[in-house]
Amino acid sequence: MMAREETDEPRIAIVGLGYVGLSTAACLASKFHVTGIDLDLAKIGLIGKGRAPFLEKGLQPLLEAHVRNGMLQCTTNYSAASDSDIVFITVGTPSSKSGEIDLSQVRSASQSIGEAIAGSNRPTTVVVKSTVIPGTTRSVVKPILEQSSGRTSGEGFGICSNPEFLREGQAIEDTLNPSRIVIGPIDQFSRDQVLSFYRKFYGAQMPPVVETSPETAELIKYSSNAFLATKISFINLIARMCEKIPGSDVNDVARGMGLDPRIGSLFLQAGPGFGGSCFPKDVQALVDYAKRLGVDPSILESTLKVNETQPDNVVSQAEKMLNRVDGKKIAVLGLAFNPNTDDIRESRAIPVIRKLVSKGAMVGAYDPMAMDGAKRELGPIITYSTNAKACVKGTDLVIIMTAWPEFMDLSNDELTRLMGGRVRILDARRIYDPARFPNAEFTAIGLGNPHD
Ligand SMILES: NC(=O)c1ccc[n+]([C@@H]2O[C@H](COP(=O)([O-])OP(=O)(O)OC[C@H]3O[C@@H](n4cnc5c(N)ncnc54)[C@H](O)[C@@H]3O)[C@@H](O)[C@H]2O)c1
Fold first, then answer.
1. What domains does the chain contain, in order, with CATH numbers?
2. Which of 90, 110, 346 to mutate to test the pocket of ligand 1 (most atoms within 8 A of CB)?
3. 278 is catalytic
4. Has this prediction a pTM greater than 0.90?
Protein backbone atom coordinates (compact mmCIF):
# COMPACT_ATOMS: atom_id res chain seq x y z
CA MET A 1 0.00 0.00 0.00
CA MET A 2 1.29 3.44 -0.89
CA ALA A 3 2.03 5.70 2.04
CA ARG A 4 -0.38 8.61 2.22
CA GLU A 5 1.18 12.00 1.91
CA GLU A 6 1.10 14.46 4.81
CA THR A 7 -1.04 16.82 2.76
CA ASP A 8 -3.71 14.21 2.07
CA GLU A 9 -7.09 15.09 3.55
CA PRO A 10 -8.17 12.45 6.06
CA ARG A 11 -11.00 10.13 5.03
CA ILE A 12 -13.68 9.87 7.68
CA ALA A 13 -16.15 7.12 8.61
CA ILE A 14 -18.97 7.71 11.05
CA VAL A 15 -20.65 4.69 12.60
CA GLY A 16 -24.21 5.37 13.79
CA LEU A 17 -26.20 7.98 11.86
CA GLY A 18 -28.51 9.32 14.58
CA TYR A 19 -28.76 12.95 15.65
CA VAL A 20 -25.05 13.13 16.53
CA GLY A 21 -23.56 10.97 13.76
CA LEU A 22 -25.56 12.39 10.86
CA SER A 23 -25.19 16.02 11.95
CA THR A 24 -21.43 15.49 12.35
CA ALA A 25 -21.22 13.71 8.98
CA ALA A 26 -23.12 16.47 7.18
CA CYS A 27 -20.80 19.14 8.60
CA LEU A 28 -17.52 17.27 8.07
CA ALA A 29 -18.46 16.51 4.46
CA SER A 30 -17.96 20.19 3.61
CA LYS A 31 -14.20 19.50 3.84
CA PHE A 32 -13.58 15.76 3.88
CA HIS A 33 -14.81 12.60 2.22
CA VAL A 34 -17.18 11.04 4.74
CA THR A 35 -18.78 7.60 4.76
CA GLY A 36 -21.70 7.14 7.14
CA ILE A 37 -22.35 3.60 8.35
CA ASP A 38 -25.59 2.48 9.99
CA LEU A 39 -27.40 -0.83 10.36
CA ASP A 40 -30.78 0.73 9.64
CA LEU A 41 -31.45 0.06 5.95
CA ALA A 42 -34.40 2.43 5.73
CA LYS A 43 -32.30 5.22 7.17
CA ILE A 44 -29.44 4.55 4.77
CA GLY A 45 -31.92 4.56 1.89
CA LEU A 46 -33.23 7.99 2.83
CA ILE A 47 -29.81 9.53 3.49
CA GLY A 48 -28.55 8.11 0.19
CA LYS A 49 -31.23 10.19 -1.52
CA GLY A 50 -30.09 13.27 0.37
CA ARG A 51 -33.07 13.18 2.75
CA ALA A 52 -32.70 13.60 6.50
CA PRO A 53 -34.50 10.81 8.42
CA PHE A 54 -35.29 13.28 11.25
CA LEU A 55 -35.73 17.02 11.55
CA GLU A 56 -32.76 19.06 12.67
CA LYS A 57 -32.29 22.74 11.88
CA GLY A 58 -29.96 23.22 8.90
CA LEU A 59 -29.35 19.50 8.32
CA GLN A 60 -31.42 18.93 5.16
CA PRO A 61 -29.64 21.42 2.84
CA LEU A 62 -26.21 20.19 3.96
CA LEU A 63 -27.17 16.57 3.33
CA GLU A 64 -28.62 17.33 -0.06
CA ALA A 65 -25.53 19.25 -1.14
CA HIS A 66 -22.96 16.75 0.10
CA VAL A 67 -24.75 13.63 -1.10
CA ARG A 68 -25.09 15.27 -4.50
CA ASN A 69 -21.41 16.28 -4.75
CA GLY A 70 -20.29 12.84 -3.54
CA MET A 71 -18.52 14.06 -0.38
CA LEU A 72 -21.00 12.11 1.80
CA GLN A 73 -21.80 8.50 1.11
CA CYS A 74 -23.61 6.06 3.31
CA THR A 75 -23.81 2.32 3.62
CA THR A 76 -24.60 -0.58 5.90
CA ASN A 77 -21.26 -2.12 5.01
CA TYR A 78 -18.43 -1.68 7.49
CA SER A 79 -15.72 -2.20 4.92
CA ALA A 80 -15.56 1.60 4.51
CA ALA A 81 -13.95 1.70 7.97
CA SER A 82 -10.84 0.01 6.60
CA ASP A 83 -10.44 2.77 4.04
CA SER A 84 -10.71 5.59 6.62
CA ASP A 85 -8.17 7.50 8.67
CA ILE A 86 -10.63 8.35 11.41
CA VAL A 87 -13.63 6.25 12.38
CA PHE A 88 -16.08 7.91 14.77
CA ILE A 89 -18.33 5.76 16.92
CA THR A 90 -21.62 7.66 17.37
CA VAL A 91 -24.04 4.84 18.15
CA GLY A 92 -26.62 5.12 20.92
CA THR A 93 -25.90 4.46 24.59
CA PRO A 94 -29.36 4.20 26.15
CA SER A 95 -30.19 3.32 29.73
CA SER A 96 -30.86 -0.31 30.45
CA LYS A 97 -33.97 -1.16 32.51
CA SER A 98 -31.94 -1.04 35.73
CA GLY A 99 -30.65 2.46 34.88
CA GLU A 100 -27.09 1.52 34.03
CA ILE A 101 -25.68 2.34 30.61
CA ASP A 102 -26.42 -0.16 27.84
CA LEU A 103 -23.21 -0.54 25.84
CA SER A 104 -24.48 -3.17 23.42
CA GLN A 105 -24.41 -0.82 20.39
CA VAL A 106 -20.88 0.36 21.27
CA ARG A 107 -19.71 -3.25 21.67
CA SER A 108 -21.21 -4.38 18.42
CA ALA A 109 -19.90 -1.32 16.49
CA SER A 110 -16.40 -1.88 17.94
CA GLN A 111 -16.50 -5.54 16.94
CA SER A 112 -17.53 -4.69 13.37
CA ILE A 113 -14.94 -1.92 13.02
CA GLY A 114 -12.23 -4.27 14.33
CA GLU A 115 -13.20 -6.95 11.82
CA ALA A 116 -13.21 -4.36 9.02
CA ILE A 117 -9.72 -3.02 9.79
CA ALA A 118 -8.26 -6.48 10.46
CA GLY A 119 -6.68 -6.93 7.07
CA SER A 120 -5.66 -3.32 6.63
CA ASN A 121 -2.36 -1.67 7.42
CA ARG A 122 -3.86 1.79 7.18
CA PRO A 123 -3.11 3.87 10.30
CA THR A 124 -6.74 4.30 11.40
CA THR A 125 -7.83 5.99 14.63
CA VAL A 126 -11.11 4.92 16.22
CA VAL A 127 -12.73 7.80 18.08
CA VAL A 128 -15.42 7.17 20.70
CA LYS A 129 -17.89 10.06 20.46
CA SER A 130 -20.84 8.25 22.02
CA THR A 131 -21.40 9.16 25.67
CA VAL A 132 -19.90 6.33 27.71
CA ILE A 133 -19.07 5.91 31.38
CA PRO A 134 -15.44 6.34 32.43
CA GLY A 135 -13.30 3.37 31.55
CA THR A 136 -15.37 2.28 28.55
CA THR A 137 -12.92 3.39 25.85
CA ARG A 138 -9.97 1.68 27.56
CA SER A 139 -11.67 -1.37 29.07
CA VAL A 140 -14.45 -2.16 26.60
CA VAL A 141 -13.71 -0.61 23.18
CA LYS A 142 -9.94 -1.22 23.14
CA PRO A 143 -10.00 -4.96 23.93
CA ILE A 144 -12.84 -5.60 21.48
CA LEU A 145 -11.05 -3.68 18.71
CA GLU A 146 -7.73 -5.41 19.39
CA GLN A 147 -9.24 -8.87 19.59
CA SER A 148 -11.41 -8.50 16.47
CA SER A 149 -8.74 -6.77 14.37
CA GLY A 150 -5.76 -8.80 15.57
CA ARG A 151 -3.91 -5.48 15.76
CA THR A 152 -2.41 -3.67 18.76
CA SER A 153 -3.49 -0.13 19.54
CA GLY A 154 -0.67 2.38 19.41
CA GLU A 155 1.06 0.23 16.81
CA GLY A 156 -0.49 1.23 13.53
CA PHE A 157 -3.94 2.09 14.77
CA GLY A 158 -5.16 4.35 17.52
CA ILE A 159 -8.06 4.80 19.93
CA CYS A 160 -9.28 8.07 21.41
CA SER A 161 -12.16 9.26 23.56
CA ASN A 162 -13.74 12.45 22.21
CA PRO A 163 -17.16 13.12 23.78
CA GLU A 164 -19.75 15.18 21.94
CA PHE A 165 -21.48 18.25 23.43
CA LEU A 166 -23.84 19.29 20.62
CA ARG A 167 -27.45 20.14 21.43
CA GLU A 168 -30.35 18.80 19.38
CA GLY A 169 -32.09 21.64 17.56
CA GLN A 170 -28.69 23.39 17.28
CA ALA A 171 -26.61 20.39 16.24
CA ILE A 172 -25.22 21.94 13.05
CA GLU A 173 -24.39 25.26 14.67
CA ASP A 174 -22.77 23.45 17.63
CA THR A 175 -20.73 21.17 15.38
CA LEU A 176 -19.43 24.12 13.40
CA ASN A 177 -18.74 26.22 16.51
CA PRO A 178 -18.18 23.96 19.51
CA SER A 179 -17.40 25.52 22.90
CA ARG A 180 -14.51 23.06 23.32
CA ILE A 181 -12.98 19.86 22.05
CA VAL A 182 -12.25 17.28 24.71
CA ILE A 183 -9.91 14.45 23.79
CA GLY A 184 -8.68 11.51 25.81
CA PRO A 185 -6.24 9.59 23.61
CA ILE A 186 -5.14 6.08 24.56
CA ASP A 187 -1.94 6.49 22.55
CA GLN A 188 0.25 9.23 21.07
CA PHE A 189 -0.66 8.24 17.51
CA SER A 190 -4.39 8.84 17.99
CA ARG A 191 -3.72 12.13 19.80
CA ASP A 192 -1.70 13.49 16.90
CA GLN A 193 -4.14 12.24 14.28
CA VAL A 194 -7.28 13.57 15.99
CA LEU A 195 -5.73 16.97 16.73
CA SER A 196 -4.44 17.29 13.17
CA PHE A 197 -7.90 16.38 11.84
CA TYR A 198 -9.64 19.00 13.98
CA ARG A 199 -7.05 21.65 13.06
CA LYS A 200 -7.71 20.95 9.39
CA PHE A 201 -11.45 21.18 9.89
CA TYR A 202 -11.62 24.29 12.08
CA GLY A 203 -8.54 26.13 10.79
CA ALA A 204 -8.26 29.56 12.42
CA GLN A 205 -11.52 28.91 14.34
CA MET A 206 -10.01 25.98 16.26
CA PRO A 207 -11.91 25.78 19.59
CA PRO A 208 -10.09 25.37 22.92
CA VAL A 209 -8.83 21.81 23.40
CA VAL A 210 -8.91 19.95 26.70
CA GLU A 211 -6.52 17.04 26.46
CA THR A 212 -6.73 14.50 29.23
CA SER A 213 -6.97 10.79 29.99
CA PRO A 214 -9.80 8.85 28.29
CA GLU A 215 -11.45 8.31 31.68
CA THR A 216 -11.42 12.03 32.48
CA ALA A 217 -12.71 12.91 29.01
CA GLU A 218 -15.59 10.48 29.50
CA LEU A 219 -16.33 11.95 32.94
CA ILE A 220 -16.28 15.54 31.60
CA LYS A 221 -19.21 14.67 29.37
CA TYR A 222 -21.30 13.16 32.19
CA SER A 223 -20.37 15.91 34.64
CA SER A 224 -21.39 18.60 32.14
CA ASN A 225 -24.79 17.05 31.48
CA ALA A 226 -25.41 16.25 35.15
CA PHE A 227 -24.49 19.79 36.18
CA LEU A 228 -26.81 21.37 33.61
CA ALA A 229 -29.62 18.99 34.58
CA THR A 230 -29.06 19.87 38.23
CA LYS A 231 -29.32 23.58 37.45
CA ILE A 232 -32.70 22.91 35.83
CA SER A 233 -34.00 20.82 38.72
CA PHE A 234 -32.70 23.42 41.17
CA ILE A 235 -34.64 26.25 39.56
CA ASN A 236 -37.71 24.03 39.25
CA LEU A 237 -37.58 23.40 42.98
CA ILE A 238 -37.41 27.16 43.58
CA ALA A 239 -40.30 27.51 41.09
CA ARG A 240 -42.43 25.22 43.23
CA MET A 241 -41.74 27.44 46.22
CA CYS A 242 -42.62 30.56 44.21
CA GLU A 243 -45.96 29.01 43.29
CA LYS A 244 -46.78 29.03 47.01
CA ILE A 245 -45.51 32.55 47.70
CA PRO A 246 -48.09 35.15 46.59
CA GLY A 247 -46.55 37.76 44.31
CA SER A 248 -43.28 35.93 43.70
CA ASP A 249 -41.87 34.99 40.30
CA VAL A 250 -39.16 32.42 39.62
CA ASN A 251 -38.03 34.33 36.52
CA ASP A 252 -37.05 37.28 38.68
CA VAL A 253 -35.31 34.92 41.11
CA ALA A 254 -33.37 33.39 38.19
CA ARG A 255 -32.45 36.81 36.82
CA GLY A 256 -31.29 37.98 40.20
CA MET A 257 -29.22 34.85 40.65
CA GLY A 258 -27.91 34.70 37.09
CA LEU A 259 -26.34 38.14 37.16
CA ASP A 260 -23.84 36.73 39.64
CA PRO A 261 -21.03 35.62 37.31
CA ARG A 262 -20.32 32.67 39.59
CA ILE A 263 -23.82 31.37 38.79
CA GLY A 264 -24.59 32.57 35.25
CA SER A 265 -28.01 32.97 33.70
CA LEU A 266 -28.16 29.96 31.37
CA PHE A 267 -30.11 26.83 32.32
CA LEU A 268 -31.99 28.70 35.05
CA GLN A 269 -35.24 28.67 33.07
CA ALA A 270 -38.00 27.05 35.13
CA GLY A 271 -40.26 24.69 33.21
CA PRO A 272 -41.79 21.23 33.12
CA GLY A 273 -38.39 19.56 33.55
CA PHE A 274 -35.62 18.34 31.28
CA GLY A 275 -36.15 15.71 28.60
CA GLY A 276 -34.43 14.51 25.47
CA SER A 277 -32.24 11.55 24.79
CA CYS A 278 -29.33 12.67 26.98
CA PHE A 279 -29.95 14.38 30.32
CA PRO A 280 -32.30 11.81 31.91
CA LYS A 281 -30.26 8.77 30.87
CA ASP A 282 -26.88 10.39 31.46
CA VAL A 283 -27.73 11.54 34.99
CA GLN A 284 -29.12 8.05 35.68
CA ALA A 285 -25.96 6.41 34.33
CA LEU A 286 -23.80 8.70 36.49
CA VAL A 287 -25.87 7.82 39.57
CA ASP A 288 -25.34 4.16 38.84
CA TYR A 289 -21.62 4.67 38.20
CA ALA A 290 -21.15 6.68 41.42
CA LYS A 291 -22.81 3.90 43.42
CA ARG A 292 -20.49 1.34 41.89
CA LEU A 293 -17.57 3.53 42.95
CA GLY A 294 -19.00 3.64 46.49
CA VAL A 295 -19.78 7.37 46.18
CA ASP A 296 -23.14 8.67 47.45
CA PRO A 297 -24.90 10.26 44.43
CA SER A 298 -27.70 11.91 46.44
CA ILE A 299 -27.44 15.31 44.69
CA LEU A 300 -27.94 13.59 41.35
CA GLU A 301 -30.75 11.41 42.68
CA SER A 302 -32.55 14.56 43.83
CA THR A 303 -32.04 16.10 40.39
CA LEU A 304 -33.86 13.13 38.88
CA LYS A 305 -36.55 13.09 41.54
CA VAL A 306 -37.48 16.76 40.99
CA ASN A 307 -37.53 16.11 37.26
CA GLU A 308 -39.71 13.03 37.48
CA THR A 309 -42.30 14.84 39.59
CA GLN A 310 -42.34 18.14 37.69
CA PRO A 311 -44.96 16.91 35.14
CA ASP A 312 -47.25 16.14 38.14
CA ASN A 313 -46.81 19.75 39.13
CA VAL A 314 -48.01 20.88 35.69
CA VAL A 315 -51.06 18.60 35.96
CA SER A 316 -51.86 19.87 39.48
CA GLN A 317 -51.79 23.43 38.19
CA ALA A 318 -54.16 22.46 35.39
CA GLU A 319 -56.50 20.85 37.93
CA LYS A 320 -56.39 23.97 40.05
CA MET A 321 -57.35 26.14 37.08
CA LEU A 322 -60.21 23.90 35.95
CA ASN A 323 -61.28 22.59 39.39
CA ARG A 324 -61.00 19.14 37.81
CA VAL A 325 -59.78 18.08 34.41
CA ASP A 326 -62.31 15.26 33.96
CA GLY A 327 -64.36 15.95 30.81
CA LYS A 328 -62.46 19.17 30.06
CA LYS A 329 -60.92 19.97 26.69
CA ILE A 330 -57.23 20.78 26.95
CA ALA A 331 -54.90 21.98 24.17
CA VAL A 332 -51.25 20.99 24.59
CA LEU A 333 -48.99 23.16 22.44
CA GLY A 334 -45.58 21.58 22.00
CA LEU A 335 -44.62 17.90 22.07
CA ALA A 336 -40.89 17.92 21.23
CA PHE A 337 -38.55 18.01 24.22
CA ASN A 338 -37.03 21.25 22.89
CA PRO A 339 -37.85 23.64 20.05
CA ASN A 340 -36.22 23.13 16.61
CA THR A 341 -36.26 19.34 16.85
CA ASP A 342 -38.77 16.56 16.21
CA ASP A 343 -37.33 14.46 19.03
CA ILE A 344 -39.89 13.48 21.65
CA ARG A 345 -37.61 11.16 23.61
CA GLU A 346 -38.28 11.81 27.32
CA SER A 347 -40.26 14.92 26.39
CA ARG A 348 -42.12 16.15 29.48
CA ALA A 349 -45.21 16.68 27.31
CA ILE A 350 -45.69 12.90 27.17
CA PRO A 351 -46.16 12.23 30.91
CA VAL A 352 -48.25 15.41 31.25
CA ILE A 353 -50.58 14.24 28.46
CA ARG A 354 -50.80 10.68 29.76
CA LYS A 355 -51.68 11.93 33.22
CA LEU A 356 -54.31 14.36 31.96
CA VAL A 357 -55.88 11.62 29.83
CA SER A 358 -55.84 9.16 32.74
CA LYS A 359 -57.79 11.75 34.73
CA GLY A 360 -60.46 11.96 32.05
CA ALA A 361 -59.36 15.08 30.13
CA MET A 362 -59.89 15.30 26.38
CA VAL A 363 -56.51 16.35 25.07
CA GLY A 364 -55.64 17.76 21.65
CA ALA A 365 -52.07 18.55 20.69
CA TYR A 366 -49.99 20.36 18.14
CA ASP A 367 -46.25 20.64 17.49
CA PRO A 368 -44.59 22.21 14.44
CA MET A 369 -42.18 19.27 13.96
CA ALA A 370 -42.93 16.38 16.31
CA MET A 371 -46.41 15.21 15.24
CA ASP A 372 -45.24 11.93 13.67
CA GLY A 373 -43.22 10.88 16.70
CA ALA A 374 -46.03 11.86 19.05
CA LYS A 375 -48.58 9.85 17.05
CA ARG A 376 -46.32 6.81 17.28
CA GLU A 377 -45.84 7.30 21.02
CA LEU A 378 -49.35 8.29 22.10
CA GLY A 379 -51.58 6.85 19.37
CA PRO A 380 -55.30 7.62 19.47
CA ILE A 381 -55.55 8.63 23.14
CA ILE A 382 -55.46 12.29 22.04
CA THR A 383 -56.44 14.25 18.92
CA TYR A 384 -53.90 15.97 16.68
CA SER A 385 -54.19 19.36 15.03
CA THR A 386 -52.40 20.77 12.03
CA ASN A 387 -51.76 24.18 13.60
CA ALA A 388 -51.87 25.96 16.95
CA LYS A 389 -55.09 27.86 16.30
CA ALA A 390 -57.02 24.72 15.34
CA CYS A 391 -55.67 23.01 18.44
CA VAL A 392 -56.76 25.79 20.78
CA LYS A 393 -60.25 26.22 19.27
CA GLY A 394 -63.07 25.38 21.68
CA THR A 395 -60.81 24.25 24.52
CA ASP A 396 -61.04 25.06 28.22
CA LEU A 397 -57.30 25.39 28.79
CA VAL A 398 -54.12 25.84 26.77
CA ILE A 399 -50.87 24.40 28.12
CA ILE A 400 -47.56 25.50 26.58
CA MET A 401 -45.15 22.55 26.80
CA THR A 402 -42.42 23.51 24.27
CA ALA A 403 -41.03 27.00 23.74
CA TRP A 404 -41.64 27.15 19.97
CA PRO A 405 -41.31 30.73 18.68
CA GLU A 406 -44.48 30.37 16.60
CA PHE A 407 -46.59 30.10 19.77
CA MET A 408 -45.69 33.75 20.34
CA ASP A 409 -48.02 34.57 17.45
CA LEU A 410 -51.15 33.79 19.49
CA SER A 411 -52.72 37.04 20.55
CA ASN A 412 -55.14 37.88 23.32
CA ASP A 413 -57.94 38.69 20.85
CA GLU A 414 -57.40 35.55 18.87
CA LEU A 415 -57.42 33.32 21.93
CA THR A 416 -60.52 35.04 23.25
CA ARG A 417 -62.28 34.34 19.96
CA LEU A 418 -61.02 30.76 19.63
CA MET A 419 -61.77 29.80 23.22
CA GLY A 420 -65.26 31.30 23.28
CA GLY A 421 -64.49 34.16 25.63
CA ARG A 422 -63.03 32.17 28.55
CA VAL A 423 -59.26 32.10 28.11
CA ARG A 424 -57.16 29.95 30.41
CA ILE A 425 -53.43 29.58 29.83
CA LEU A 426 -50.93 27.46 31.70
CA ASP A 427 -47.49 28.52 30.51
CA ALA A 428 -45.23 25.64 31.54
CA ARG A 429 -42.32 27.15 29.57
CA ARG A 430 -42.64 30.79 30.61
CA ILE A 431 -42.74 32.06 27.04
CA TYR A 432 -45.41 34.71 27.67
CA ASP A 433 -45.55 37.93 29.58
CA PRO A 434 -48.85 37.57 31.54
CA ALA A 435 -49.69 41.19 30.66
CA ARG A 436 -50.15 40.08 27.05
CA PHE A 437 -53.38 38.29 28.00
CA PRO A 438 -55.43 40.77 30.03
CA ASN A 439 -58.63 38.71 29.54
CA ALA A 440 -57.07 35.43 30.56
CA GLU A 441 -56.86 33.34 33.64
CA PHE A 442 -53.09 32.95 33.42
CA THR A 443 -50.86 30.61 35.39
CA ALA A 444 -47.25 29.73 34.82
CA ILE A 445 -44.58 27.53 36.33
CA GLY A 446 -43.00 29.42 39.20
CA LEU A 447 -45.51 32.24 39.33
CA GLY A 448 -47.04 32.95 42.74
CA ASN A 449 -50.64 34.04 42.24
CA PRO A 450 -50.97 37.47 43.90
CA HIS A 451 -54.46 36.51 45.15
CA ASP A 452 -53.60 33.16 46.78
N1 LIG B 1 -28.66 13.41 20.82
C2 LIG B 1 -27.91 14.32 21.42
O3 LIG B 1 -28.29 15.48 21.59
C4 LIG B 1 -26.53 13.96 21.90
C5 LIG B 1 -25.63 14.96 22.25
C6 LIG B 1 -24.33 14.60 22.67
C7 LIG B 1 -24.01 13.26 22.79
N8 LIG B 1 -24.92 12.30 22.49
C9 LIG B 1 -24.53 10.90 22.59
O10 LIG B 1 -24.18 10.48 21.27
C11 LIG B 1 -24.56 9.10 21.07
C12 LIG B 1 -25.52 9.00 19.90
O13 LIG B 1 -26.71 9.71 20.23
P14 LIG B 1 -27.88 9.92 19.16
O15 LIG B 1 -28.92 10.73 19.84
O16 LIG B 1 -27.29 10.37 17.89
O17 LIG B 1 -28.37 8.40 19.01
P18 LIG B 1 -29.50 7.82 18.04
O19 LIG B 1 -30.19 6.77 18.82
O20 LIG B 1 -30.27 8.95 17.44
O21 LIG B 1 -28.67 7.15 16.85
C22 LIG B 1 -27.89 6.02 17.00
C23 LIG B 1 -27.71 5.41 15.62
O24 LIG B 1 -26.80 4.32 15.71
C25 LIG B 1 -27.26 3.27 14.85
N26 LIG B 1 -26.63 2.00 15.30
C27 LIG B 1 -26.90 1.29 16.39
N28 LIG B 1 -26.08 0.23 16.48
C29 LIG B 1 -25.25 0.31 15.41
C30 LIG B 1 -24.16 -0.48 14.95
N31 LIG B 1 -23.74 -1.54 15.62
N32 LIG B 1 -23.55 -0.10 13.80
C33 LIG B 1 -23.96 0.98 13.10
N34 LIG B 1 -24.98 1.77 13.51
C35 LIG B 1 -25.60 1.43 14.64
C36 LIG B 1 -28.75 3.31 14.98
O37 LIG B 1 -29.39 2.69 13.90
C38 LIG B 1 -28.99 4.84 15.01
O39 LIG B 1 -29.17 5.35 13.70
C40 LIG B 1 -25.15 8.66 22.41
O41 LIG B 1 -24.13 8.09 23.18
C42 LIG B 1 -25.61 9.95 23.05
O43 LIG B 1 -25.63 9.88 24.45
C44 LIG B 1 -26.16 12.61 22.02
1. 12-212 (3.40.50.720), 249-444 (3.40.50.720)
2. 90
3. yes
4. yes
